Fold each of these.
Amino acid sequence: MQLHRIHALARRTPFYYGWVVLACAMCASFARQATAVATLSVFIVPMTREFDWSRAEISGAVSLGGILAAVVSPWIGALVDRAGARAVLFVSAVAIAGTAVALAATHSLLWFYVFFSVGRMIFASPFDIGISAAVSNWFLRRRAQAMSGVALATGLSLAAMPFIAQVAIDASGWRVGWVTVALSALVVGALPNGLLMVRRPEDVGLVPDGGSPRPPPSTRAGATAPAPEVSYTLREAMGTPALWLLMAYTAVIYMVQAGISLHQAPHMIERGIEPVVAASIVSTFAFVAAASGLAFGIVGGRWPVRHGMSLAALVMAAGAVLMARVDGAAAGYAAAAVFGAGIGGILTLTPVAFADYFGRASYGAIRGLALPVQVAGQAMGPLLGGLMFDASGSYLGAMWTFAGLALLAAVVAQTARPPGTGTAPAGT
């Protein structure tokens, strides 16, 4: 009955309902930041001081969450293709809020590992696939621009959630910080997706990008048929070099993204910057990522998507170099701004590339296959940074390593050409 009411609302809405779906996806993007590495970064100092954990130990929970996400991603992808994003995003928002509440009761490293790794798994798999599938299903020509809206929400959320947590930590301690994060995720993420999300425009008599289904071109005088929408099955996509190159790109670039995101706040503190200023620097990086996502949405609509991905990686490499050279607050803000600009690019264009190259019909299954290598990169990056810090007492070596990895990703992106000319592969 509830689903019937949602569909009726979608048909009666005086504007294209895809914008409502996009807004729901943006709300889900906020909720998932409850266990983002940027959010965890503001908890590292107070929690390690209380429990005397090493940076590598706390980073390991991020890595374990990535492993769990890799295991469940194929199943989640198939579920999204079959059932749509509504249930997946609603349950994910409720569950991630629950893990944040549990983290407020942390009393041992094992407890922290159990609940943060589950929260991180929710962040990395069902949220990622559900959000990008929802937007990809409702937009074709405007896909890059719509996905930039999600990147905007992600950037603003990456700014807001760590800042919300830091304010709560400063006022009442890190346990209250986790509870505050949980309530934010529950209210913003669960309610809109449970009440308003719709699977595909065709389910309510609409077509992607807006409007209503039109009669075939043969019934309209002088009309020419548009190019058919690309549609690869999972098996067909696996037979293309493009899929494996996109997977390689995501593995490397998300290693850089997660590694620097988690360790940037403690790196700033180690360089003599006050914790509250370090938290504001993290917020700056996220605000720039939000604005950059909009810019890369325009790029993705005008350039081949692989060029935009390569540019984003180059910008991230420059940000990593600047991170290594931080010697004060001003340099910290500059480094975070440049790095955030690159983050906005990969958040916008990576899901667009998979949808543009392989279509909507099996998007969840294809992303479910590809996502494990992305989350493996996100798992390895923080662990690499933590191990290098524990070995040397400094993040400098890690930052230079991340810069080199970003340059490698830029090269890989250039080789990831579309598998076809925009038509469906033979046999479909």
Amino acid sequence: MAPESASGNPRRDGASVLRDLSVVTVLLLASFGVHALAVGGGPMAGLEDLYRRAYYVPILYAAWAFGVRGGMTVAIVASVACLAHTLVDPAVVGGGGSGTLVEVALYLSLGGLFGALRDLEGRRAEDLRLVSVQLEEAYRKLEERAIQLVHIQDYTQSILRSITSGVVTVGPDGSVATANPAAEGMIGLREFEIVPRQLSGLFRDDGGLGRDLGKILSGRLPKVAREITMTTLAGRTLHLKVAASRMRAVGGRILGAVVTFEDLSEVRALTAQLIRADRLAAMGELTAGVAHEVRNPLGVIRASVQLIEDGTAAPGRRIEALNVIKQEIDRLDRVIKALLDFGRPTAPVMAPVDLAGVLADVVLFTQRFADRSDVQIVVRLPEGLPKVFGDADQLKQVFLNLVTNGVQMMGEVGGSIAIEGVEDDGFVTVRVTDDGPGIAPEDITKVFDPFYSRREDGTGLGLTIVHRIIDEHDGRIGVRSTLGSGATFTVTLPAARPDRAETEDGPWRGES
């Protein structure tokens, strides 16, 4: 369809316009000639009323070809011609020419109305053309978007097929919607066998995953992540790191959840080998440390016994030797007791613990000892600090050891020990900072090793036991120090949660 002009008619080339003008001109001339034959006593006299209607043809054609402007223009020309013929016809002049005026009105009405209808039809056609163009453009964009979505879907599927972690999506009812090849390999079933079964029904033992997945789908947990042991229907045991999070629509409606599986079987095997090697190395170091700690007192005791056996020794020297023997026996007793505490630890009784109360008891126990060394202990804990999940007595032992070590390191110089606490994303961190001489860079990695001590009368097992207690509480302990500027021990423990007792396989690192 040709484009429309401002009047609503199609925009045409010059040849088309010239052709229509020629047709209109020919029709006007023909109508004029026919009319001329019917007036002034011509051969067709008496048929004037019929032949002057011949002007309808060029008027209608002009209105169709050029719209209202063309129709009115030709109607005016036809009216002038009709009036001119009428003026030279004595019969019309004598009769007043009322019929001619009616005819002229019909010319103008016909040209205007038909031309207006033609313009209206042209505008509608133009509107339809524009709508058609817009629809074609919208369809093209929609087609491009559909192609892009197909490419994105193919790309996403390629990623899911390629990654080594298992990825499973479940619907709001807990039924599996999709599973990638890695998940198929771990579960031991093909995707068509998995979909749409319940995820927990794909395992003999799901390690509690189904229970916690239900919490996610019900809105009680947004996400969870932990290491669990699962048994497939075929009897295969899997050590997996599982992470699950809910899927939401744009409006907030829960669509389901995404569950990822990472196989830790090989990692666990390698870790077990490393732990075994590390234990053997630690046992060697422990044996050497025990031999050193026992041999020195035994050597002193042997020398003292020889002195007592010597009959020529003065009585005062013998009494002094006996006192030395008692001191060395006490030293051996301390070493053996520390070894028993380290080798046969008491299982912690886990419960929510208020760290403020624990630290208050620690300050009370160490205050007199700190006062003798002119050491000030300052505790700064924020209000509303969450409780931690642990054994109160063992945690007292941890902080008692850290504070005592700090006081001993400052000696008689004095100073201060600052104990600060802070909550951080489900964990509680306590920092114990002293003003002592600090720890040398080459020694800072050894502070938690057995029998490492910078004091002559130290057993070197205190911080080793502290590290073990913190490990059993699923926590972390670290040390930071600059030589000459003191040391900071940082203890991080999981905050207590109401649902913690429900989890049998270890703490979830999720949000409740």
Amino acid sequence: MTGNLKKVYIFISLTFICNFGLVGLFFALGGKWTMPGSLIISILYMFIPMIVSIFVQKVIFKESIKAPLGISFKFNRWFVIAWLIPAFLAIATLGLSLLLPGVEFSPDMEGMFERFADLIPPEQMEELRTTELFMHPFWLGLFQGLIAGVTINAIAGFGEELGWRGLLQKELGFLGFWKSSLIIGVIWGLWHAPLILQGHNYPEHPVSGVVMMTIFTVLISPLFCYIRIKSRSVIAAAIIHGSLNGTAGLAIMLLKGGSDLTVGVTGVSGFIVLAIVNIGLYFMTRHSDQKTLTIL
């Protein structure tokens, strides 16, 4: 079995041109990376891999979209696993972060307030500090993150995943599970560069954040690819993507200290958790037949 590398090259080229061009055009027209403009561009940014994959698959190569790219809503237990795993990753990362020097447990979320002090107006910050909720914000965030993860976040996640775990994983599968996951992870990480440079995910370290984000996507790519294979659906990949985006904040909500490079799922503590997950995946798959780890 071999993939269509020409299709891969065209998809990557068009995706990067369109995504990088979108951000470049935004600034060329005088845009400022502030709300709501930054949010609109970020949302549009996520849907470009989907649009390009459909264009490449249907228009350029005259091939069908649904089955080859894994668009299946046939439910199985891997959809539930995809939905819940990110919350466990966030909680595990929270716990591991507490082992780092200078990081403390902050149940009153004082550390969280300090992190966003420069981003939220003082009056709104004071309102957040004094507002009484019917449950602790951590549990409320977990509930909201899971609901968003399987709904609106999953839709946005699908915008990316049809490209990464749809087209790319299909065409690069002949390289083997781990090698294809690595390549997809690198492409996926570098694709984030224009957003990271604007402070997304790593507001304190936007330049080194590009490298950190690429390390993160390389580490989490095998898990996403494995979910895609076991579920036989790119929809499950969109769900785990959406759930990750919805629950990632839990990993820093109860922490004081550390930086965007050290704590959180996209920091060193998250990397350690994902490295452990990958070790587990390796031992789970090392005796598997190659066909069982490939999208046919």
